[in-house]
Write a structure and sequence with these properties.
By secondary structure, the protein is an alpha+beta fold. The chain has helices at about 5-10, 20-45, 50-55, 60-65, 65-75, 80-100, 105-135, 135-175, 230-240, 250-260, 265-275, 360-385, 405-415, 420-430, 435-450, 460-490, 490-505, 510-515, 520-550, 555-595, 595-600, and strands at about 175-185, 210-215, 215-220, 225, 285, 290-295, 305-315, 320, 325-330, 335-345, 350-360.
Length: about 625
């Protein structure tokens, strides 16, 4: 076969060979940077206010996309940009894998995520442009559903499959979990004091495991003197720090953060809008009990065992006051770590709660996942290097004599902002997802957080199933219904209903925050309802961007609308974690629902062509 014939075959290669893989590759780095990173940092112990700020800031490359998109046009072919970006993204995934277990992992990985976000946004520009160049208009129309499907499969992978995989690796690389039952008993008078000398810490036969004393903790419902729990917590904390079960720097950091949070403005927000416990004047408080943890034998070498402890199910009147996370190593494996549990002073009847102690290698689990992603993207780069077609129109932009790229670039922006009603359009783009932009940063941390801090204490696998399977299926169903309804009745007629659909179902998080359901069935239903509404309502947003972009420079103007979409997600997302830490999950989710008000104030003033979006009979 001659070289000309070979090149002809490459030019006419079926879109099935590259469209599905290209759009799957486009979605993965975006969902990893925006969603999976949030779950990762939460599982690795980073504060909500810290990771929400920096992961929300990762939207910036997508905000700036219209500014550097002409560079993609000017230099090299789009197919070259595609596989080169995939190669570098693969290397960055590997970079995260090999730095995630370092002491300064957060700083290092967030810098890597920044580079990944810029490379991913560049890849998006090149891929979307190549999609139009690499096939005819008829094929573009046919494959639009295929590209959306594989992009959503990437969402399912990033939010679901990878989290499930992390959960499986974490469970199978750690020590066996143990359940500890705590019982409130009204008929016994039990006086407990911290006494580590009586704990049996001798070596146990068999595999390395977590040992808890007692196996069942009984606490009397008879009240204790005021200050009992505070004294117990202080003594337990001092012991645990002294023996290396808790890092002194962590406690110091928490206290410093608490002091910082008492600045005037933040103190005002906390006092006025934060969760408050109504305390009655009384001369006593709920009784306390103690658990003691150690390992069955000395761990090998320098291995460090992290034990996480929290409520699993049962009466919420029995709560953990100290001891959510402990460190064991070769030096302190046989020195008991102390946990403090307290009863609600109003609890007078027999009741019980199950607590769970678990130890998984979270860093190793995430490293393994990122190694797999790195290898996948290196393979994508190689595959697309040879499988992408060579359309003749895919070439660097040629500048005509006397024509200025800068002038044309600035003219594109000028024409966009000269559109009639552009102020209202921009306000709509920024406000439509004001509620969702804050929810999305705290939804997964809320599901993962311990019940003592207001979360639901789900595992990574359970969150992956809720968001990556149930959530994505409902999202797709909502999107399909939304597309069908708009094509039948038009965007204007259904805009209000879709605005309600994307915002009001967020209230399911208020329900979950106040009730903290133990049932996975209930939690999955709530997540499914929220994602169904989001899929239905987001259809209106996408069509609205197309409506705003209509006219000359349609492609460039659509890129500008996507920049405003990213900006609308970035700014509210950056403050979301800070606000949640001040007012708690319950009041934060109430605030999220209150944030729907601005868009409904704006909607009556949004001008729309009543026929826009309605499918023409000839098209049918």
């Amino acid at each position: 076969m001659s070289e000309i014939e070979k090149r002809s075959n490459v030019k006419s290669r079926s879109s099935w060979w590259w469209v599905p893989s290209l759009y799957y590759a486009e979605g993965i780095p975006y969902i990893i940077a925006m969603a999976a990173s949030v779950a990762m940092y939460k599982m690795l112990g980073v504060r909500n206010s810290v990771f929400t700020f920096w992961t929300a800031a990762l939207y910036l490359p997508w905000v700036l996309k219209p500014i550097w998109s002409p560079i993609i046009e000017m230099f090299s072919k789009k197919r070259n940009w595609i596989y080169i970006m995939q190669f570098f993204i693969g290397l960055l995934f590997l970079g995260i894998a090999f730095t995630i277990q370092l002491p300064l992992f957060f700083t290092i990985t967030i810098v890597i995520f920044w580079f990944m976000a810029f490379f991913s946004a560049t890849h998006d520009i090149a891929a979307d442009g190549f999609y139009m160049l690499g096939q005819s208009e008829k094929k573009q129309a046919f494959f639009v559903g295929i590209r959306c499907t594989f992009y959503r499969l990437a969402m399912m992978t990033g939010q679901g499959l990878l989290l499930i995989l992390v959960g499986v690796i974490e469970t199978n690389t750690g020590l066996p979990s143990i359940d500890i039952k705590t019982v409130a008993t009204p008929d016994k008078e039990i006086v407990q004091t911290i006494n580590v000398e009586d704990i049996d810490v001798t070596v146990r036969e068999g595999d390395l495991r977590i040992v808890c004393t007692p196996e069942i903790l009984e606490i009397s419902t008879k009240p204790a003197k005021l200050g009992t729990s505070a004294a117990a917590i202080a003594k337990a904390e001092e012991w645990n720090i002294q023996n290396g079960h808790i890092l002194k720097d962590e406690v110091k950091s928490q206290k410093e953060n608490a002091a910082i949070e008492e600045r005037k403005f933040e103190k005002f927000i906390r006092n006025k809008f934060g969760e408050k416990k109504i305390l009655k004047k009384q001369s006593n408080e709920g009784n306390v009990g103690y658990l003691y943890f150690h390992l069955s034998k000395k761990p090998e070498g320098d291995e460090e065992i992290i034990v996480n402890f929290g409520r699993e199910s049962g009466d919420k009147s029995i709560s953990l006051k100290h001891g959510e996370r402990f460190i064991f190593n070769a030096d302190n494996w046989n020195i008991p770590a102390i946990v403090v549990i307290q009863l609600d002073p109003n609890l007078k009847i027999e009741s019980a709660t199950m607590f769970l102690a678990k130890s998984g290698k979270t860093s190793l689990a995430w490293s393994t996942v990122f190694i797999a992603l790195g290898i996948l993207f290196l393979l994508f780069a190689i595959y697309h290097r040879f499988m992408l077609p060579h359309p003749e129109t895919d070439r660097p932009m040629e500048r005509k004599e006397g024509e200025s790229y800068l002038f044309e670039f600035l003219r594109t922006f000028k024409l966009f902002f000269q559109k009639k009603n552009i102020g209202i359009y921009v306000a709509f783009l920024l406000l439509y997802r004001l509620s969702e932009s804050q929810l999305v940063k705290l939804a997964q941390p809320f599901l993962l957080d311990s019940q003592e801090t207001g979360g639901l204490a789900l595992t990574a696998g359970q969150v992956g199933f809720a968001y990556g399977t149930v959530g994505v299926i409902m999202l797709i169903i909502g999107g399909l219904i939304g597309g069908f309804i708009i094509s039948k009745y038009g965007l204007k007629k259904w805009l209000w209903w879709m605005a309600l659909a994307i915002n009001i179902p967020n209230a399911v998080y208020i329900f979950m925050a106040f009730t903290q359901p133990d049932s996975l069935f209930v939690i999955n239903i709530c997540v499914g309802i929220e994602q169904l509404g989001y899929g239905f309502g987001f259809t209106a947003y996408m069509l609205f961007m197309i409506y705003v972009a209509e006219g000359e420079y349609k492609t460039a103007h659509f890129a500008i609308t996507t920049a405003f979409m990213a900006l609308g997600m970035m700014i509210p997302g950056m403050w979301s974690g800070w606000l949640q830490e001040l007012i708690g999950y319950r009041h934060f989710f109430v605030w999220v629902v209150i944030c729907v008000i601005p868009i409904f104030v704006l909607l009556p003033f949004v001008p729309l062509d009543p026929t826009f979006g309605v499918k023409d009979k000839k098209e049918k």
